[in-house]
From TrEMBL:
InterPro entries on file: IPK, IPK_sf
Enzyme Commission (EC) number: 2.7.-.-
Record-linked Pfam families: IPK
Principal EC category: transferase
One example of a Gene Ontology biological process annotation: inositol phosphate biosynthetic process
MF-aspect GO terms: inositol hexakisphosphate kinase activity
Keywords, alphabetical: Kinase, Transferase
Gene: Ip6k3
Protein name (Swiss-Prot/TrEMBL): Kinase
Family of the protein in this entry: Belongs to the inositol phosphokinase (IPK) family.
GO cellular component: cytoplasm; nucleus
Keyword hit for Metal-binding: no
């Protein structure tokens, strides 16, 4: 979907057409694909400050920060809105190019109200290098993300549409507030799932408190209520989104934040188990590497004095592609030791409300001493639940 425009030596980089990140499973900010290994999101000064002063010990648990890029709205000849990243400081060298002549023709179909099965299938396959298997009858509607008339949310086995939902809302907000020429600053971050063929992703909202220090009284009350009515209060963690590849059907099973908010502690445990089930068997081979990585993160968080990770998320990621010998010979997955990141990974994301002593964006933050005990409480419970699963309980 990116037009190639050869540049002469010394000429500035051409613009990059941004597309929705197809593996976004949670959150409300639109995540966009910049290139195969890079995503971008609207810049929030508090999050930038976090990445710029990130403690060395935490870097293995966060996406790599790659810089800042300017982004503007563009309307094509049909009136469809797109986002274009302009060349600028901090841009990765490996960027796609889009020349002005090909701009309208290269506009993606993400921004239309409905999506025909042929268009959606082609677009996802283009974005995922043919790695995704999709149900061809998929159509995207905002209301498909919500409950039905009986208050139930059907299980969707197509690709997760949450990123498209966020992207459409984001485009509508931007177009209603700003003209096309206004430049917006976006953060460039590592795409932490780019190395996986079938990325299975669990987005967990961590901690017993979700509102930032800057929240209004209304927002503060709203977040407190969400925590009290969900596993955030009882476990210090709640599910905000999930996609897990089902090897038996070739589709992704998806859950969103509305599903996660309603779970009891036992429901949370069962969903965590479901996340590790590929439709054929429980991926017990992943439990040890995930637990070891969570324990390593717990050790790091315990040492971070003054940090409060309000409203941040934790991603647990693994590749849903079955090992060839398991498919061919119906053998169990081989036991692995250590924290091989190619098998499973754990990453902290979303730091727009993270506060810490010495923050550039907030030189006088609310003073906090010691580590973030709400976050630690969530990590400890998550580890306990995974350990019980590994013991067959």
């Amino acid at each position: 979907m990116v037009g190639q425009s050869p540049l002469s030596p010394g000429e500035g980089r051409a613009a990059v057409l941004l597309q929705p990140f197809v593996h976004q499973v949670g959150g409300h900010t639109s995540m966009l694909t910049y290139d195969e290994h890079t995503i971008c999101k609207p810049l929030v000064s508090q999050e930038l400050s976090f990445y710029e002063s990130l403690p060395l010990a935490m870097r293995q648990f966060t996406p790599q920060y790659k810089g800042i890029v300017s982004v503007h709205l563009k309307k094509d000849s049909l009136g469809n809105l797109t986002l274009i990243a302009s060349p600028g400081l901090g841009q990765p060298d490996s960027c796609g190019r889009l020349d002005s002549a090909s701009g309208d023709a290269a506009v993606t179909l993400w921004h239309k109200r409905k999506w025909s099965h042929t268009q959606v299938t082609k677009s996802f396959k283009d974005s995922c290098s043919g790695k995704m298997l999709l149900r061809t009858e998929l159509q995207y509607h905002t209301d498909s993300l919500l409950e039905d008339a009986n208050g139930k949310q059907p299980e969707r086995k197509s690709h997760n549409p949450w990123g498209l939902h966020c992207h459409r809302q984001h485009l509508n907000r931007m177009s209603s507030k700003h003209n096309e020429n206004k430049l917006h600053q976006f953060l460039l971050l590592e795409n932490v799932v780019s190395k996986y063929s079938y990325p299975c992703i669990l987005d967990l909202k961590m901690g017993t408190r979700q509102h930032g220090d800057d929240a209004s009284e209304e927002k503060k009350a709203r977040h407190i209520k969400k925590c009290e009515q969900s596993t955030s209060a009882s476990l210090g963690v709640r599910i905000c989104g999930m996609q897990v590849y089902q090897a038996d059907t070739g589709h992704f099973l998806c859950k969103d934040k509305y599903y996660g908010r309603k779970l009891s502690p036992e429901g949370f445990r069962q969903t965590l188990r479901q996340f590790l089930c590929n439709g054929n068997q429980l991926r017990t081979d992943l439990l040890e590497p995930i637990i070891l990585r969570l324990k390593a993160l717990l050790s790091v968080i315990r040492k971070q004095s003054s940090y409060r990770f309000y409203s941040s998320s934790l991603l647990i990621i693994y590749d849903g592609q079955e090992l060839k010998e398991s498919v061919d010979h119906h053998l169990p997955y081989p036991k692995t030791h250590g924290t091989n990141p190619s098998r499973a990974d754990v990453r902290m994301i979303d730091f727009a409300h993270t506060t810490f002593k010495g923050s550039k964006s907030n030189p006088n933050p609310t003073p906090y001493d010691g580590p973030d005990h709400g976050y630690i409480f969530g990590l400890e419970n998550l580890i306990k639940i995974l350990q019980s699963l590994s013991e067959g309980k």
